[in-house]
Every structure is written in C-alpha cells, then in structure tokens.
Amino acid sequence: MKILFTGGGSGGHFYPIIAIAEEINRLVKEHHLLRPDMYYMSNDPYNKGLLYENSIIFKYSTSGKIRRDTTPVNIILNFFDIFKTIWGALGGLWTVFTIYPDVVFGKGGYASFPALFAAKILRIPVIIHESDMSPGKVNLWAGKFAQKIAISYEESAQFFPASKTAYTGNPIRKQIYDVLAVGAHEFLNLDKNIPTIFVVGGSQGSQLINESIMDCLPDLVKTYQIIHQTGKSNLKVIEETRNVILQNNPLKDRYRPFDYLNLLSMRMSAGAADVIISRAGSTIFEIASWGKPSIIIPITVSNGDHQRKNAYSYARSGAANVIEEKNLTSHVLVAEIHRIINEPGLKEKMSASALEFARRDSAHLIAEQILAISLEHEK
Predict the structure, then answer these.
(1) Which residue in 319, 322, 320 sits closest to 352, CA to CA?
(2) Number of structural domains the chain divides into
(3) Pairing with 75, which of 99, 253, 267, 299 sits 20 to 30 Å away (CA)?
(4) Number of helical H runs and strand E runs in the chain
(5) In a shared domain, residues 252 and 342
C-alpha cells in the first residue's frame, strides 16, 4: 500500500498532513495492517525531522504560480512560470509514475499541482482537503475529479459537488490538542494572578501585529502579562524596541518575547493564556481546540481574500472577534482585550464556542478514507 501526500510547502499544508500520517500509522497498528509506504511531494520538505519520525519519504517537485496582482513584474513572472509549471507537471508525472501510489492526498497550493495532475492522467484516486473558507485554484480544479473532498469550513461546501464533500474540520496533531494549564505559569515564569495575553505570530511572525503590540506595550503591562511569539527574524528588533519602550518601567518583566515556541512551550503558553491574538491561517483551528477566546487579525491582501473570509467565518461561531488591519490601532486592540477579559461571562462564552467549533476527529475521518480507498485500489 502506497500513499502520496502533496501540498504547498507551508505550515498550513504540512502540519495537517503530518496529523493525518500519524493517524494512519495509528490505525494501521490498531487494525494489524501492513504499514504503508508514505511519500510527501512538494517544493520543500518543510520539516525533515517530522517526515523522518513518521516514515514519510520526501519527493521534490517544482511548479509555477499565478500571481493575481497584475503589476509589470508579476506579468513577466507569470509568463516564465508557465514554462515552470509545464516542466513541473512533466517531472511530477514521472515521479508519481515511479511511485504509483494507491491514493494521492492533496492539501492544495501550487506545489500540489504536479502530483494531482499526474494522478489525474494515471487514473490514481485522489482525496483533497481545503483549509480555507475560499478554496484555492488548484483545489477548485482538483475537486472536479477527486473521489472525496474534505473541508475545514462548512461554508466551503458551496464550491464543491455535494455528493463527495464532507465537513471534517482541519487536521491537528494530537500532541497539540490539549493545553497544559497545570504548571504553565511556573514553567513560563508568570504570575497566576495576572491575566495573560498570548500573541501567536507563527514561525515567521507578523510585522504588523508585532508593531501593534509594541505601540500599546506600556498600556498592556499595566494590567496584563504578555507571551509574544515574534518570529525568528524579528526577535532582535523586538527586544531592542522593548528595551527602549520599557526602559524604566517596573513592570517590564511582564512582557516575554520568544522567537519560536516548541511544542511544549506552545501548549504551556496556550494553557496560561486568557486571550490569544493571531492571524487567520490554520492557527485558528489550534486555538479552537484549546478552547480559548481570540482576537483574529486577518491579512488584508491574501489569495482569494481567504484570511479575511476565514476570520469572519470563525467569528460567526462566537469564539473570536475580528480586527481588520485598517482598524488596528493600539487603542482598539487594548479596548478589545479589556472587553473580552472584563465583560461578565464573555470569556467563558467564547471559550465554549471555540470548543464547539473544533473538530478533533478531523485527522481520523480523513485517515480512514485514505486507507479505505488505498485498500480498495490495491486489490
């Protein structure tokens, strides 16, 4: 049995694939099946360690992309990427032929096109998963021939054939499901009696969110303690800015910036948090699984406006409030934090809505379908 995963090479595509692979390995062991050969085909391995831990073999592929912003530079890049896409499709066809998997699972993104194109030509069964409320171009195309389509947001069903589309939520690694509240304050050197704000910037960080936190930092430390994941390339600048802003402030130790949080630190930070501030990518689903109120700040310019649509779809559940970039000021951000923490019953209501939105069986549902199709195709 052979399973080929493919995705755009970002964390939003990579980590759900790892979650599904982990569940496949668990189900195979539980049902005493032969362990499948698993492959990941993309333009970047993203995290070689996790691929190795889950016995996934990386296969390189290349693909061009279509840039929506028609500036002169993008027009030129789009032209040359036509040839890159053709070359990637031909290379992908050969790679997939040599593997000849029983099923191809696609997470979307331009880097998934070569594998999905090859699967269509070679008549290999395809399952796709769409993380965003508004599907990307590759998944919209693949949805026409995929056997099964999984979606993270119920509203996304309108874009795909109803007969083969299922609302599964977004797969999350089991290791990150549950927050670690016991011992979290001690581990992070925080005061249990002071509300905690957790700013999730992702591995690359968010410059706009970072700047907004710096702008309101003197006001925030008066009432709160802040855990801030700045992104690896931003930590030095943030620390220098913090040192100037809070130079003589007796409460400066309430602000704790980190370039990156490992799995344990992330779960501890989530456990200590009263409110989480984040972008509107796949982190939304982790926040929901943690059952934490959140303030979501979507990127204004994103493919298909997907971050903004993701943010408002999640906010409609009652679990989050949205602040758009054009409205993001230090005053607005501080006021929204105050409201969530101080309005009677609001924080608890938002937490309950977050847990209701979360789908913890997502990886299991998708893994079952992948194995079922693989076993059928193997006959």
Answers:
(1) 319
(2) 2
(3) 299
(4) 15, 13
(5) yes
